[in-house]
Amino acid sequence: MTLRRSAAVVLFLLLPLLARPALAGSPEPSPAKLAAIAAIEKNSAAVGEWGRKIWEFAEPAFQEHNSSKLLADALEQAGFRVRRGAADMPTSFVAEFGAGTPVVALLAEYDALPGLSQLDQPQQQVNPRQTAGHGCGHNLFGAAIVGAAIAAKDAMTSAKLGGTIRVYGCPAEEGGCGKAYLVRAGEFKDVDVAVHWHPGSSNSAGMKSSLAIIRFRTRFTGVSAHAAGSPQLGRSALDGVELMNVGINFLREHVTSAARIHYVITNGGNRPNVVPQEAEAWYYIRAPRMSEAQAIFARAKKIAEGAALMTETKHEIRMITGSYEILVNEPLARAMDANLRHIGAPQFTSEERAFAAEVRKEFGVSSKPDEEPLATRIEPVEIGMSNGSTDVGDVSWVVPTVGLSVATTAREIPGHSWANTACAGMSIGRRGSIVAAKVLAATTVDLLERPDLLKTAQRDFRRRLGETKYATVLSDGPPPEKLDDF
């Protein structure tokens, strides 16, 4: 091979690397970043304790009074200025340290899911003191964010860095879209960049988008009557719900393959011998783009209208909430990935691996002798799509945003399950949350120290946003006190 040809081959192999953004994380961790990581290690017991207490509180959407108070108090004691009840939500808060730009936002969640009460055991066992459970690990989410913010604040002070660290206490991610209410209230209007994480079963920095979602209820109102004595005088609201569901199920054939529609009947009447005067169903519509979700929602409203006509009932569609898909940011993802690789994936003990293996066995997932029941490797940064939805999406459409996933639960088990609740309450979840806190703290320091990273991230944000204008899909009016108030 000639020298010229060799050079051409080398250039060809390097082209993919040269085409990447120049900012792929700091080549060597700065003293401030190392100090932030060390601070997490020093305060790991506190982070673990916060996560465990929130796990024990197990408070569902808009009712996280103890959980939000715990985190807000911890930030206040660490020197943050705390404003509680942001955007008219009693369980939200905004905590701030420093002054001026850049303003780096850290997003904290702490709501639990109804019906997922579970002891920290590898077999399904309801906790008699709880009716809800952290089947999505939000107890770990909030604890790690607050730990990261305090560590970054300490490093910021010692290194005399300028800027502002701001923690958003975000209630009701599960169905209530607390962040969308915060965005609607203008709480992010001066933010330069936002970071978050999510407990999961893998370790990766965020280039995955999510599904946009619209949540709504349809209530039918009819005429009650004796179901045997005078059925001809009745107009069944339950018939309206059931016919709407039939129509929705036929609609599934005519939506994009990545779309999801699911529902529950929240009110189907009281007794079989009384024609139901009122009935209601609650729907979630998900799609890769908000525009697609809105198009499906428009058809769903027509189906509801048809069901009401067929049953001679009245119907009312009440919008619940909606979240946009996540707008990813490649420069931020690569910077966060560099920090994740510097810190490393969680390394679990033999007892933790045995716990996870037992959980997998309960779900019929058998671990081979050489197979790890918990993720211990870091996935590459790749553009992709998650099948879940999150109100982080709304934040990502108004400010450059990045997140990561860290292993806190056993591999190949379903999300929103008792098994996730069990892992989130024991050392598996805590160990993953410490890794997340270190990555978040290191990334926050990057954003305070490196204006070049921030500028590149903002260019990427503007390019992906294009001409699209964000507009909330929330109903008018204040947030509810609980989801059942909609």
Report on this model:
It is a single chain. The chain is α/β, with parallel strands linked by helices. It folds into 2 domains: 24-208 and 330-465, Aminopeptidase; 212-324, Alpha-Beta Plaits. Helix content is 41%, strand content 18%. It is built from 14 helices and 15 strands. The strands form 4 sheets. Strands 1-2-6-3-7-15-8 form a 7-stranded mixed sheet, with helices on both faces. The chain has a 4-stranded antiparallel sheet with strand order 11-12-10-13. Strand 1 and strand 2 (93-99) form a beta hairpin. The radius of gyration is 24 Å and the shape is globular. The protein starts with a helix and ends in a 21-residue tail after the last helix. Mean pLDDT is 93; it is low at 1-25.
Compile the SSE list and pairings.
Elements: H1 3-19, H2 31-42, H3 44-57, H4 65-77, E1 81-84, E2 93-99, E3 103-109, E4 113-114, E5 132-133, H5 138-158, E6 163-170, H6 178-184, E7 193-200, E8 204-205, E9 208-209, E10 212-221, H7 237-251, E11 260-267, E12 278-287, H8 290-311, E13 314-323, H9 330-343, H10 350-362, E14 384-385, H11 392-396, E15 401-407, H12 418-424, H13 427-449, H14 451-465
Parallel strand pairs: 3-6, 3-7, 7-15, 9-14
Antiparallel strand pairs: 1-2, 2-6, 4-5, 8-15, 10-12, 10-13, 11-12
Helix pairs in contact: 2-5, 2-13, 3-4, 3-5, 3-13, 4-5, 5-13, 7-8, 9-13, 9-14
